[in-house]
Specification:
This is Phosphoribosylglycinamide formyltransferase. The chain is α/β, with parallel strands linked by helices. The chain has helices at 13-21, 43-49, 66-79, 96-102, 122-129, 164-187; strands at 2-8, 29-36, 54-56, 84-87, 106-110, 133-140, 150-157, 191-194, 197-200, 209-210. It contains six helices and ten strands, in the order βαβαβαβαβαββαβββ. Helix 1 (13-21) runs parallel beside helix 6 (164-187). It is globular, with a radius of gyration of 17 Å. Bound molecules: glycinamide ribonucleotide (GAR).
């Protein structure tokens, strides 16, 4: 089983979906560590409730020195023997130093169908654009924000009566299915980097898309 560290900044509902999936004995990954850059992240207590090791690496302690923060993070990941890192609502931009060090072993979930709606307030912006399908993306992290080879995507309908909250709740429910699926593809070696894209080895049996 691949050893996965999950990085959070907040409530950690996607982290919980990964922890729950990894409880299945045939899941190809185990969650060995949860790290938050914020001491008050609600997800820390949830991880502890599952008996998972947690760490706080408070970015504020490092001032503007992003690399010093990341060197501390990297040391903690190495100490835990992490093979893969999953960002789950981790709201810090990572420097090229960290991203290159972990490239191909570092994944993120973003609440939109990339490359549409990078950045924040994705549900509000999807409604403003009048898109009829919205969703979530799991991708390998590259040094540009919310970009990098796409591993899996899922789509949900946008309904006429939607508010950012109602649409966001529909997407979040999808995220909780999508992220465990995508991590399964990566940890089992079925999702492989092929230049700027990812190929999924098992074809229709393990699609990169969820609806
Ligand atoms: C999720 O919707 C995740 O996709 C998003 O933050 C939320 C975290 O919720 N991530 C980003 O916007 C990253 N650009 P959670 O803490 O309950 O998993």
């Amino acid at each position: 089983r691949r050893r996965v560290a999950v990085l959070i900044s907040g409530r950690g509902s996607n982290m919980v979906s990964l922890i729950e999936a990894a409880r299945a004995p045939d899941y190809p990954a185990e969650i060995v560590l949860v790290v938050s850059n914020r001491p008050d992240a609600a997800g820390l207590a949830r991880a502890e409730g599952y008996g998972i090791a947690t760490a706080v690496i408070d970015h504020k302690a490092y001032g503007r020195d992003r690399e010093a923060f990341e060197r501390a993070l990297d040391a903690r990941l190495a100490a835990a023997g992490a093979d893969l890192v999953a960002l789950a609502g981790f709201m810090r931009l990572l420097t090229p130093w960290f991203v290159e060090r972990w490239f191909g072993r570092l994944v993120n979930i973003h609440p939109a169908l990339l490359p549409a709606f990078k950045g924040l307030d994705t549900h509000e912006r999807a409604l403003a654009e009048g898109v009829k399908l919205h969703g979530a993306t799991v991708h390998f992290v590259s040094s540009e924000m919310d970009a990098g080879p796409i591993i899996a995507q899922g789509a949900v309908p946008v309904l006429d009566a939607d508010t950012p909250d109602s649409l966001g709740a529909r997407v979040l429910e999808l995220e909780h299915r999508l992220y465990p699926h995508a991590l399964d593809l990566v940890a089992s070696g079925r999702a492989r980097l092929a230049g700027r894209t990812v190929s999924v080895a098992d074809g229709p049996a393990a699609p990169g898309s969820l609806i």
